[in-house]
């Protein structure tokens, strides 16, 4: 193992760490997934439980990841190895870091394809394809995009090239420079969209739906989903937070910065709901539209409203930025690993990771287009996996992310010496004891429940 040049780097300031971490967390999970799972699970009650889960479980685990990263000062696998050995524990525990890095890379293999959809939709919206289009026509636009492996390959490649160009320039000239304007631009666009949506849509109905809890609409499964989404919307268990923690200055307060990141991430998720639901309700559409809410339901609303082409264009530009900032974060740990393990230069490591990612993305692309070699029929519990994309999606979401989260909580709570974590946190003894109790006991129990529910072993 060599120490990569990037590991010696540090974030230029606490603000840039907060911007980078928030940009990493804010992505398709906040703007694509959060609104539709809120719609499917009754609105306000789900939002309230989600916020409680962010505060009670997500934030403590995020703090744990940053502690491991800053203490280890390496890419995730080597950081976990260093901390485990320093704590007098088995080398086995390095699996905590390797699993997170591998999971993040697998997620990115299809995440970058979905980002390509958003990029394609910028062009569709700007060219007026949605203007006056019927529901059937908009459905055809989406269907023709995802069924064309050639088109998807082009849009996916555009995302990968952009990611390589940013990450190849390193921490200061690449990641910091990108997030310092991309995240503020995305938030400004989202605020503008929310304001316009409130003006032309049904803002009152959206506010009532999101913030007036009706617990009769929330099932125990909905509570588990809120817990799972709160945990994963912060980008946990994907190698990102450990990697970004490795670049964090020793003088920066981990608890304070983590709190700011969690608040900013949650603010963007709620803002996305306020940008989307007024349009949905104002257009007499249903908030329970599921995964198609962004790519099929919203374009129907854009087709009917004044200035819909401009609004749709701005919305999908914002979605591309959100997806892109997450993508550059998810590839960073793989690049740092290649630098460390093989002593590669920054650009060589980035291009190698980018090419591998592009190859993996073909599995998702050809799964969507229905290529024979990607089609399977596997029954896992009550869920049928019909393509290799389904396998990757199911395995990462339902197995690897929860397992990685469990390992992280156990690692921080039981494996890492408490004197080391206390030294990294540098906080009041009572605050440390509360955090340590959560990552030792509450977080593992919560994650085990999520895992068992996701794979269908327990049902509520």
UniProtKB/TrEMBL annotation:
The Swiss-Prot or TrEMBL record annotates one GO molecular function as:
symporter activity
Cellular component (GO) terms are: membrane
Pfam family, any one = SNF
Q: Which InterPro entries match?
A: Na/ntran_symport (IPR000175), SNS_sf (IPR037272), YocR/YhdH-like (IPR047218)
Q: Which residues cross the membrane?
A: 12-32, 44-68, 98-120, 152-171, 178-200, 220-247, 259-281, 309-335, 347-368, 399-416, 437-458
Provide this UniProt record's keywords sorted from A to Z. Membrane, Symport, Transmembrane, Transmembrane helix, Transport
Task: List locations, semicolon-separated.
Answer: Membrane
User: What CDD domains does its record include?
Assistant: SLC6sbd_Tyt1-Like
Q: How does it sit in the membrane?
A: Multi-pass membrane protein
Family note: Belongs to the sodium:neurotransmitter symporter (SNF) (TC 2.A.22) family.
**Protein name (Swiss-Prot/TrEMBL):** Transporter
């Amino acid at each position: 193992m060599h120490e990569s040049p990037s590991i010696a780097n540090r974030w230029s300031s606490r603000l840039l760490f907060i911007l980078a971490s928030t940009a990493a967390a804010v992505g398709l999970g906040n703007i694509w997934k959060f609104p539709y799972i809120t719609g499917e699970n009754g609105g306000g009650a789900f939002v309230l439980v989600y916020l409680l889960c962010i505060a009670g479980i997500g934030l403590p685990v995020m703090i744990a990841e940053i502690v491991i990263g800053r203490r280890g000062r390496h890419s995730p696998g080597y950081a976990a190895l260093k901390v485990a050995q320093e704590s007098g524990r088995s080398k086995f525990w390095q699996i905590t870091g390797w699993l997170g890095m591998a999971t993040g890379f697998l997620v990115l293999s299809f995440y970058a394809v979905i980002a390509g959809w958003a990029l394609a939709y910028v062009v569709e919206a700007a060219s007026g394809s949605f203007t006056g289009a019927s529901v059937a026509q908009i459905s055809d636009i989406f269907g023709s995009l995802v069924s064309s492996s050639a088109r998807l390959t082009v849009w996916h490649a555009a995302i990968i090239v952009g990611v390589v160009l940013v990450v190849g320039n390193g921490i200061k000239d690449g990641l910091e420079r990108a997030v310092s304007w991309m995240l503020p631009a995305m938030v400004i666009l989202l605020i503008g969209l929310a304001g316009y949506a409130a003006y032309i849509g049904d803002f009152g109905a959206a506010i009532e739906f999101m913030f007036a809890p009706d617990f009769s609409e929330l099932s125990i499964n909905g509570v588990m989903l809120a817990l799972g989404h709160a945990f994963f919307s912060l980008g946990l268990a994907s190698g990102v937070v450990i990697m970004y923690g490795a670049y964090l200055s020793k003088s920066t307060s981990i608890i304070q910065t983590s709190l700011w990141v969690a608040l900013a991430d949650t603010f963007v998720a709620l803002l996305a709901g306020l940008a989307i639901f007024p349009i949905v309700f104002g257009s007499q559409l249903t908030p329970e539209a599921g995964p198609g809410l962004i790519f099929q339901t919203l374009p129907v609303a854009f087709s009917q409203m004044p200035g819909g082409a401009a609004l749709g264009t701005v919305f999908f530009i914002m979605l591309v930025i959100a997806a892109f900032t997450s993508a550059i974060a998810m590839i960073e740990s793989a690049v740092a690993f290649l630098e460390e393990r093989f002593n590669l230069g920054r650009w060589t490591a980035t291009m190698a990771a980018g090419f591998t990612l592009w190859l993996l993305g073909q599995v998702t692309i050809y799964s969507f287009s229905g290529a024979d070699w990607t089609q399977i029929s596997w029954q896992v519990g009550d869920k049928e996996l019909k393509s290799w994309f389904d396998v990757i999606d199911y395995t990462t979401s339902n197995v690897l992310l929860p397992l990685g989260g469990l390992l992280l909580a156990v690692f921080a709570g039981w494996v890492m010496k408490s004197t080391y974590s206390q030294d990294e946190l540098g906080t009041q003894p009572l605050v440390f004891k509360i955090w340590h109790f959560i990552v030792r006991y509450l977080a593992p129990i919560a994650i085990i429940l999520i895992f068992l529910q996701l794979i269908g072993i327990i049902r509520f």
